[in-house]
User: What shape does this take?
Amino acid sequence: MPTFGILVGGGPAPGINGVISAATLAARRRGSRVIGILQGFEWLMKGDIEHVVDLDADAVSRIHEQGGSILKTSRANPTKDPANLDRVVDALGRLGIDHLISIGGDDTCFSARTVGAAAGNHLRVAHVPKTIDNDLPLPPGIPTFGFETARATASGILAALAEDARTAGRWYVVVLMGRNAGHLALGAGHSANATMTLVAEEYAGAKVPLDRMARAVEGAILKSTAEGRPHGVIVLAEGLGECLDPADLAAFPDLPRDEHGHLRLAELPLGRLVRDRVAQGLALHGIKATMVVKDVGYELRCVAPSAFDQEYTRELGAAAVASLLAGHANVMITRQNQKIVPIPFEQILDPKTGKTRVRMLDTGTESFASAMALQTRLAAADLEDGKSAEAIAGVSKLSSAELKSRFFG
Assistant: This one.
């Protein structure tokens, strides 16, 4: 009897339970046993095989409609210590698990691949890509599960804040979750028609001074005010913290890192830093503005999945079982053009780091250009002769020459 193990790693995302449910049902209907492993690799790394549950149809009935994860999750990393890796492989063997389905993002994918390699022919591994960040290396246009639900939820929050901003005459500076890539920030900001969305990909990997980021926001507020909208929502992608100039990060030497070595950007007060610097700039224009900082991210991770993600995750979960039983091993399960396509782990690795590639926003696409064009951003042409330049000069204490120097000098 084949025995499947299912575990979840990384942060929660809408739809996890759909994968667990469908994989359980598909495996049980083929005569297999299914073991749910609690809290990712955490207990297995200790050699503990007690924190598991047997899964059957009754255990997973209707859970695909629920947010969260019935198996919990953790960021435990078995690849950092060879002894932990050995204990994971041994624990899986003692549980009789010969087929492993991991659900998670790039770090969990790398961990699952490493465990599969260490176990050799004794274990087949299939990874189901999960992250609201949408940053796993799937083909263009194919989202990771959970992203669309999170984007819709975030868009609703931004729209509500925009209405509050209009009603109360204020600005919101919203930092949207996304460890590296700006998919979620741009997707939600574009959907909600935020005044401006700033993402790390705009800077093409360069280290950027805080002043430069703040100046872009200041310009957007100045232009919007000149156009008769002294209120709005500015969205900052959390990943901007990764491209901040080290000199600006020097004030935070104790920023913690997670188990995979990534800076915990949620601990960086990015929104406050930008807001305070923007406030200084607006004072030069004689503009007094109320700016409220909001962090949005954790609110999105455990909401109930949309119909799209319910269907998507059920298909991926069933496909993971079918792929493993068909002899595939060490693959990431994807859906492309209504077909299930298992991608070998080797094809999704970054040759420089040996880890899973991160899919960043493609700034060369028409969709990115469209999103940028629909935002309110101060451009050099806005300060040339014409109604726009006149309106902007009318709401600022700075001269035309000073404006040009400040923003484009």
Summary: The first strand starts at residue 3 and ends at 8.
